[in-house]
From TrEMBL:
This is ATP-dependent Clp protease ATP-binding subunit CLPT1, chloroplastic-like. It comes from the Eukaryota. InterPro entries: Clp_N_dom_sf, Clp_R_N, CLPT1/2. Residues 73-216 form the Clp R domain. Pfam families: Clp_N (PF02861). Keywords: Repeat. Signal peptide: none annotated.
Amino acid sequence: MASRALSALPIPTSFSPSSSKPYFPSSLSHPLRLRLRTLRRPLSLTPRRTITTMVLSMLPTAKPERAASAEKIPKWSARAIKSFGMAELEARKLKYPNTGTEALLMGILVEGTSEAAKFLRANGITLFKVREETVNLLGKSDLYFFSPEHPPLTEPAQRALDWAVDEKIKSGKDGEITTTHMLLGIWSEKESAGHKILAALGFNDEKASELAKFLS
């Protein structure tokens, strides 16, 4: 599937809630707005071809060879795609210029129906707590700053997504890349905001191993 770049507004140098520099991968997926609209439609009213196209979409990747041969790469699940869209929205709500691992974590919880989201809530990690920890860790942005429509990924967030893809490929199993892969990708970025927030809320390597049992 061909990919095209998402446009982003210039990022101000006066504010950066994350220590990581914004990351602009050379190949990005189609805009998520169309995909999220598709997700909101009743299945009975959504053409089968549109659903298939949405589900087979790829999230942003830093590896151009993946975009060039998308048909050979495992596809992201509909829940993972929606979680990514919600992550961008959470970054915008907080007026952050980037989508970091903390936003990816919030996106999983906002989507809420995946095994990863249920596991987090069962372990006392809620959206409210993650938002609170995010502000404590990264601070608040300028009241009058407007976040880009698609806040670019930070380097740790991009590596977390690519880790998820690599892990699925290494497993040799059929199926899609899920929010569980995404969550474990966030945890793999030890110095990222998402990892620090998870650790502060009681997530650890033992829980990561328990969560990994849901991988398919």
